[in-house]
Write a structure and sequence with these properties.
The protein is mainly alpha-helical. It contains 19 helices and eleven strands. Helix 4 packs antiparallel against helix 5 and helix 8 packs antiparallel against helix 13.
Length: about 575
């Protein structure tokens, strides 16, 4: 990001240097920027700094365990004094551009193109803030230090949502480029994909949060989500399948160059130019990150290859790790390390088991990690970070139609069926479901009985796992209680018996209640007793069945509806009491 800002400053300096009009030396003029297309392009390039440039983008989730206590879900564990994110500097930069992009020296069509990009980023900024804080002040101009708007209260949710949609409608209408094969610029289809995300959020929020009093307008927002998604679906994108069911899904996340068949926009890197990130460290280091791991309850939602639920099998509750990985949706083996998974070490492919020092539930994520181990402990990763891709658009379309009650078998086939076919699933691709899955309903969404909606939620969580959507999803669905469930892990048939967990014929791990076992060379021993030698609780324990790993068994996560929105930071309320605090905080 520093390099990007430096490039922008150098380019702007060049523009000033090339301008033949002599300006007073004590004056900095905006004219060299706003009267040329080059200036408009360089200015709008600064907006891209809003995007996350890192593969670790997950948030608090209903299916991910981490190695730290979730203070936000701990009773009285989080307060306005700890809240953050009420930062408006980015918005001022965007509004300054929008207000000043009016020079007749630039053709109106060109100006509107860059205004469309600017308004896309204003919508992106406001949507993130609305998801986090709810009602906001709507600010559409750069404020000066004495502006009375600095001390005004928040505007209604309807004004904010309508304004976000208006910005995106402008972007879709005026951005000139429909697609970008480099996946590195905002295009009309990126704006439409984002609109489908925003409108789906708002429509489902209004439907399920009945206390907001906006239920009657939910359908209109869902229709807007459907239409925005359809616009993208007509643009020629497709679900990438060229590498076959065993590789296509994961390839989206581990290549340097984005897969433009499916990816609409991605943050890109180039290790040769020194533009890289530390992604592998975040997914392999026990000290660098939070060791995010899938829960077993969620792993059980991955379907069998024939399209039937894994949980419909007799005895699924006592299935060992190796057995539960067989004949499953191939995205399971492309998301976590399963038997047969290999990494490159010293130039050779080596079968690699989950690292149980890192994989706190036994399910070690591999979706975003480069296979060569040389990337693990240094910041030299250059795989792309997809932020908008066609798969999400299909999911948005299917959900918007299901929530309206208009989903057809053909809709199902072209959306959910297409995604499942890419994952090697053969059954249930052409017709929408007619009966709810009792496991999915009872474990995650007890208030939902519609089989279409349940299956779309299953598909959304699997397809978009670890991509930062799950917290927003449970908030809009008003399903926050799902985030409080136990962090369960793999099933251990027998303690004190070393297991080969990757099928290479070598013993990998032994689970034991003995703090000082007789060790077999090459075997990792994971202590699952209740207390450590110093008397502290052990984070990795066994469930009451004596076989299932539970991480942070004694951590009590509690849901309260105030958690759907973060509190306004206390310091910001001191500076502007007119904002008023969110309910419950």
């Amino acid at each position: 990001m520093k390099q990007i800002r430096y490039a922008i400053m150098c380019s702007l300096a060049f523009l000033w240097a090339c301008d033949m009009e002599e300006l007073p030396k004590a004056t900095v003029s905006k004219e060299p920027v706003f009267r040329t297309e080059t200036g408009l392009k360089m200015y709008t390039n600064s907006f891209y700094n809003q995007f996350p440039a890192y593969t670790v983008r997950y948030t608090t989730s209903y299916y991910i365990a981490t190695n730290e206590v979730v203070k936000y879900l701990t009773e009285n564990g989080f307060s306005a004094e700890e809240s953050s994110g009420w930062d408006w500097g980015t918005l001022r930069n965007i509004n300054y551009f929008i207000v000043n992009c009016n020079s007749p020296a630039v053709p109106a069509r060109t100006r509107n193109h860059y205004l469309g990009i600017a308004r896309f980023f204003r919508a992106y900024f406001y949507f993130g803030m609305m998801q986090r804080f709810g009602d906001l002040p709507w600010i559409n101009r750069p404020l000066e230090v004495n502006d009375e708007r600095l001390y005004a209260g928040r505007d209604s949710r309807t004004l904010i949502a309508d304004s976000i949609k208006a910005d995106l409608d402008f972007a879709i209408a005026h951005i000139l480029k429909e697609r970008d094969e480099t996946c590195s610029t905002i295009t009309r289809t990126v704006a439409a994909a984002f609109k489908s995300r925003v409108c789906l959020w708002e429509g489902t929020f209004r439907k399920y949060h009945t206390e907001a009093g906006l239920t009657a307008s939910a359908g209109a927002w869902l229709k807007e989500a459907e239409e925005a998604a359809r616009l993208v679906m007509k643009a020629g994108y497709r679900v990438y399948t060229a590498d076959g069911v065993e590789r296509s899904y994961r390839k989206l996340f581990v290549t340097q160059k984005p897969v433009s068949d499916e990816v609409l926009y991605a943050v890109t890197f180039d290790g040769k130019l020194g533009v890289s990130h530390s992604g592998n460290r975040g997914w392999t280091s026990v000290t660098f990150g939070l060791c995010p791991s899938l829960t077993r309850s969620f792993v059980h939602t991955y379907l069998m290859r024939d399209g039937t639920p894994f949980t419909a099998r007799a005895g699924y509750q006592t299935t060992s790790f190796i057995e539960e990985c067989k004949d499953r949706d191939t995205r399971l083996a492309q998301t976590i390390r399963t038997p047969g998974f290999t990494r490159i070490s010293g130039g050779e492919a080596v079968q690699t088991a989950p690292d149980y020092a890192y994989a706190i539930t036994g399910y070690h994520t591999c979706k975003f990690t480069l296979d060569d181990t040389q990337y693990d402990n240094v910041d030299i990763c250059d795989n792309n970070v997809p932020l908008f891709r066609y798969a999400e658009v299909l999911l948005n379309y299917a959900e918007a139609k299901a929530e309206q009650g208009t989903l057809t078998d053909e809709d199902w086939k072209t959306t959910i069926g297409t995604l499942r076919a890419r994952a090697g699933i053969t059954g249930g691709l052409d017709k929408k479901p007619t009966t709810p899955d009792p496991y999915l309903q009872s474990r995650f969404f007890p208030s939902v009985s519609n089989p279409e909606i349940l299956e779309i939620r299953r598909e959304r969580a699997i397809e978009l796992s670890f991509e930062g959507f799950s917290w927003a999803d449970i908030c809009r669905w008003k399903a926050g209680d799902a985030a409080t469930k136990v962090w369960d892990g793999i099933y251990i048939p027998e303690l004190d018996v070393p297991y080969d967990m990757n099928g290479d014929g070598k013993l990998d791990v032994c689970f034991t209640l003995n703090p000082k076992p007789q060790k077999v060379p090459g075997v990792y021993y994971l202590y699952v007793g209740k207390t450590l030698e110093n008397g502290a609780n052990n984070n990795t324990q066994l469930a009451d069945d004596g076989h299932t790993i539970v991480f942070m068994k004694d951590q009590k996560r509690t849901w309260n509806d105030k958690l759907y929105f973060h509190p306004i930071p206390a310091n910001d309320l001191v500076m502007n009491p007119a904002l008023k605090q969110n309910p419950g905080w």
